[in-house]
């Protein structure tokens, strides 16, 4: 199938994760993504390791977010480099950047400057705190924002428990959410331009704004009750039982989402007395009686091994599952069936393992055709083919360190 963003060109000035996560998704959907990198060091994440690919020295971190892009190495601190970026912007539909507020203005690469060379440009800025407000000048990283934005206030064991205290998530979820909000916003702006002829648009995305927005039900729990949610470990603030339980030989997750499922659990567990008591019939009762009910469930679940619970609860239609290591994830039959591990061929008969885009359209996985690029791999091709720069000019720019 022809991919939905075929013919769209994205000039990607972003680094690290949030911006590259956005542009990788756009590349998977068919957009041509021109990734601008520093000629010497490239995207910061090229050095974020180990692990690294042995033969190329590329970091696993960089590889996770840069599939399908063309690496064009230009020094934007030089006047010649800035001129090249402006020419590329004039030929692009979207500019994506995550510099500090005002950081690109001194180079003439901010929104107000680039809309002069491209009146239809969609310009997406990702920052820690947004383009306005008292924190706007500050640098923001995912870990900082997880703390400032409330996520670590609800993640981890309760303070009263052994090992209690704030914990960050295992991946940079604020960056990832911001990348997907950015992708959605860019697509909306492209659709608006197509339908209504909209002119230049500046999209302002803040990691802090995104983190607060994605507090979701926990934010509304506070706004509705006035009570600030606290850390509950693996428990759910609004559903019981919906947490991890120790079994006779390990752990399982029990995710009872409604009263009927709780009845089925009690049947499997031979715990009819829980229903007969009348104290735990509804989810509201179970949440209110959490402190009394959960220890009873813990004692019941610990009597049987994990395989018993996973098998019997599955038969009964009660949602449950194991707690897998990442190695076990990639060995899971459902994960294998869906083709989640993606192997992409590279030059000289080598290949690289990546993770597939989760979107399927007409049963086709939406992945870009090319693997993450080497630093500066496409510099000459893009500048000569798109901007018609002659070989002598490119050689001179390379010798000056403006390009790679």
Secondary-structure topology with pairs:
Blueprint: E1 9-12, H1 18-28, E2 32-37, H2 60-63, E3 69-73, H3 79-90, E4 94-97, H4 111-117, E5 122-127, H5 142-148, H6 173-196, E6 201-206, H7 207-213, H8 216-225, E7 242-246, E8 251-255, H9 259-268, H10 272-276, H11 283-288, H12 290-301, H13 306-316, E9 320-321, H14 326-330, H15 333-337, E10 341-345, E11 351-355, E12 360-361, E13 364-365, H16 379-385, H17 391-399
Parallel strand pairs: 1-2, 1-4, 2-3, 4-5, 5-6
Antiparallel strand pairs: 7-8, 8-9, 10-11, 12-13
Overall pLDDT level: 97
What is the chains' assembly state? single chain
Helix content: 25-40%
Instruction: Please name the fourth-level CATH homologous superfamily of the largest domain.
Output: Crotonobetainyl-coa:carnitine coa-transferase, domain 1
User: How is the largest sheet built, in terms of strand order?
Assistant: 3-2-1-4-5-6
CATH class category label of the largest domain: Alpha Beta
